[in-house]
Amino acid sequence: MRSVFFILLLTASTVSAQTQLTVYNQNFATVKEKRTLELEKGENEVRMTDITAHLEPESVVLRHLRQPGSIQILEQNYESDPLSEGLLLRKSEGRVLDFEINLPPNGEKKIVKGKILRSGYIPHTSAFRRYGQQYQFSQMAYSSPEGGGQPIVEVDGKIQFGLPGKPIFDALDPSAFLKPTLLWRLLCGSSGKHDVEFSYLSGGMRWEANYNAVAPEKEDTFDIIGWVTLENMSGKDFENANVKLMAGDVARAVPEAENLRAYEAVSRDEVGGRPAVTERAFEEYHLYTLERPTTLLDREIKQIEFVRAANVPAKRIYVYDGFKVDQRYRGWDYYTIRTQPEYGTVSNPKVWVMLEFHNSENSHLGMPLPKGKVKVYRRDVDGRNEFIGEDQVDHTPKDETVRLYTGNAFDLVGERRQTNFKVDSNSHWVDESFEIKVRNHKKQRVEVRVVEHLYRWLQWEITTGSMEHRKVDARTIEFRPAIAGGGEAVIRYTVHYTW
Length: 499
Hints:
mainly beta, Immunoglobulin-like, ten-stranded mixed sheet, eight-stranded mixed sheet, 7% helix
């Protein structure tokens, strides 16, 4: 499969074109082209072909570059159904066609004539998403074999379901639409050549960031390489397009029917030239620009390096979150669970391993990082990289902390159990006690962050505890025992809830 972007070509009176694509990490893009149209004064009919198959016709903007307002779109038609046998059969309903039949045993060909009473073609598939399932079911019932919608052909005065052979059609009308097409009726104030900018939104394209982080054999510093991955499923190739990538959560209105259906770049000194991708803030998002024009082919995946940093300092963190959601209580509210003794008594034995680093210039980064998957490797004693985990990072601004979950520790085991529970519903209080054990089967000493969620109510107080804790937020506390190699940490505490 190949990845790339697309841009449309104006075929009517077109002399030159320049293409710019802004691709969003929400599976759509803005396509912009500069075109030269040769128009007559008054009304003109212009066909725009080679547009994407996922163009949003209501997003089309046509702008004269030198004389704003001198060109007006009086009417726009969007023909999006691709030419196919089914579509030609539908256009031939009521007509007599020739059908080619292969006769056994030698495959001799025979021509029979048949009148198309019904084509069986499923129209308006592009409207399924907009109008919802009920519309889709109606269309399928109208045209599908299960709904009685297979082709019906009259041959020699008799009716048959299904085609008698391979249909042979007449030559196409010169005005036939062979591919998705915009048909414009333009009003122009003067004759001659006009430089215009044509833009629209289209689906069928996406981009994402992917990172590879490689740590040395023993230390927790790492080298990181970031790739921009572009994918084009638009049905159109783009030659030498200027490409921008928008990172951020851009709001888009969701169709009603859909609601119903439930980087820092490498420095010049390192590579001896300009970075492949540069970044800047734009509105509330970040815009990444590919420094060189790029050819983006249909059904192609293209990758471009956009960040490379060496010796990024990181810290390995062990986290034990012993709480495990009991499926019986999934979806319960706080009012219900606060007096249930069994809630929160299921223990998770796994200790998480996380890699933490700072996205700053001091860490050899400091570029807003778009969200994406991070694959983490560590070099073995033989010098080869071994895969040790993968995580997803969100959009991360400069100078923020990044934590990567790489898996569960093999030699660290946790245990959490409820040791006491008292409730007085009339006086509106609950006392709950826990004992937490973390065993270290490694040879070296490690620190483990033991996280406890105070989930029963917002008003609480730790009345007793075997070691100091830190309040992380309104419902979370954290203990940090240092556990010797082969040793065990035991934490006991009692929390008093009131409401």
